[in-house]
Amino acid sequence: MIDNPTFAWPALLLLGAIHGINPAMGWLFAVSLGLQERSGGAVWRALGPLALGHAGAILSAVAAATLVGRVVPVGGLKWIVAGLLIALGLRHLFRHRHPARGGMRVGARDLTVWSFLMASAHGAGLMALPFFPTRSLGPATPSGGHADHAVAAAGVVPDWATGLLGSGLHTVGYLLVTGLFAWVVYEWVGLRLLRTAWLNLNVIWAGALILTGMLTLVL
Amino acid sequence: MQRMLPDPTFYPSPTLAKEATPETLAYVTLLTTGQNGKTDALGVIDTDSKSPDYGRLVGRIDFPQGGNELHHFGWNACSSHLCGYAPNPHTERRYLIVPGTHSSRIHILDTKPDPRSPKLIKVIEGEEVARKTGYAFPHTVHCGPDGIYLNALGAPNGDGPGGIFMLDHETFEVKGAWEKDRGPQNLSYDFWWHLGHDTMITSEWGTPNMVKDGVNPELLLAGKYGHAIHVWDLKSRKHVQRIELGEKEQMVLELRPAHDPRRAYGFVGVVLNLDDLSSSIFVWHMNETSAEWEAKKVITIPAEPADAEDLPPLLKGFGAVPPLVTDINLSLDDSTLYVSCWGTGELRQYDVSDPFEPKLSGSVKIGGIVNRTAHPSRPDRPLNGGPQMVEVSRDGKRVYLTNSLYSPWDAQFYPDGIRGWMVKLDASAPGGISLDPNFLVDFEEGLRPHQVRLQGGDASSDSFCYS
Predict the structure, then answer these.
(1) Which among A12, A192, B39, B213 has most CB atoms closer than 10 A?
(2) Which domain holds residue A166?
């Protein structure tokens, strides 16, 4: 719901990087797999599937919004996204729940599914949604006259190409930070850091969800 | 209530947990026997050696009822909350989950704001446990990465199967039975896991009907009590393998997997061998080449000859006192195993740096069916009961013991009536243990101590995802 791509693309990249900081989004899992196998290779191997799962979560939120956008009027979608963001934020604030389906003997597929579920449960896709540029949809074909085009042209719902590009950028930001954190903690910093530096991001995350929800309404 | 930084009692690895400061308080379940008008309780013991109340009961929370048969208990959350796949580190280690094995009631106690005076905040009735899980006679409590795990000895009618169920670690809501496929498993006693291998291990005692009235000699001699352990997939909740320990091995109790999540082995105690009344310790381990789990007996503790007149009726015919190994504990660095010989009145310390070649490194005698060894602080007073629940501090330097096992067994092996005590031992590196002469807690008549939990965690309260 941001109209300016020159702002939207860096914003999505940055948001991906911010998601990557959260230990619950995967870098810590990668570190623990590395320690379990006593191999830095295990850390690196985890990154691809983690990124894939995260990208999947963003894309599905975009796809859902696109589909809903076809039937719901512009103003309505804004309210739906904002309402969901604020509700999810409040829920995270009062009761932090996330799927705990995981383990230490995991293959690429398990990791992808885990990352997808974790990102989805934390509302990562929902949080990214308002940052997707909508002007880049381009002018709706003037002669089109289809209802969905009309909605798209109204500048709320990203089209598929924009959705893919935006999700990709977001995932690049996520992957860079996830990889950096995993590598630095695994190779240099060590586990002791977890005891003293692991700030409760749930509260900040919940705040970010609520704030994004509010901004969605204002922007 | 969520913290802004992780609970300071959570440690990523057992190695880091060894750095924890010494505990200043210990919690101990105190159970009443029969109808003496008393209710069960949780006792709070001062373990701060600099405190004027060191080695004394400084708090006691009476439960609404007696006769719950309090047994084991545990925390709502622990170091497993740091696990990378289910991070939840800002939950507090705060609530004690105290099940009653006979009543099936689960008591939730809040150790804040005053850790010396926990408050009972919730009681889950046995009827609710039965309705939601199909289980009764709850036993062991472990805090897992994704919630509180408990197990139960059997079904509400007192038969099998026993199994695992879960509580939500924030609301304490009872969730359903855990198993998706229990395979041939029927008997239950203890459970724990290898988080690094997504594997749960369970042991076998007997169904509630087989144990609630004490050891049944007919069932015992027929080899009907448990003699196997079970391996489960922690993720799929399915039975993977049954490991037979031998039909003569009766009552397979406490499980102590290596704390290091990379290590795929652990120790389990067997109470009685039918041939010679010995107790034993088995090691289970994953065979690296076949990926199958195996078990091997690594310690045998023989029965000691005794005069029939010194023995309770159940043992008179045997002319020997069995060691009755009924609890074991493994130090956080996986190097030292403590073995409680409740019958002979001895606590043994083994160097298990090589788990397949344990070396006896220390021994302390106290209590015992025949010996009744006194504590150094009261050499004139013979003690009954014997080393039973054994708990080790996180740094491995202090060991706590209580003397009551399970009231139906207490009555059979110590028919004169157990007088409850708790003692502390000092463990010195590289080996050796000795009783602390300043630490003998003498509980009032009719209150018997069982499991001990140390404030902030101990060697059987936490599990770890990082080695």
Answers:
(1) A12
(2) 5-218
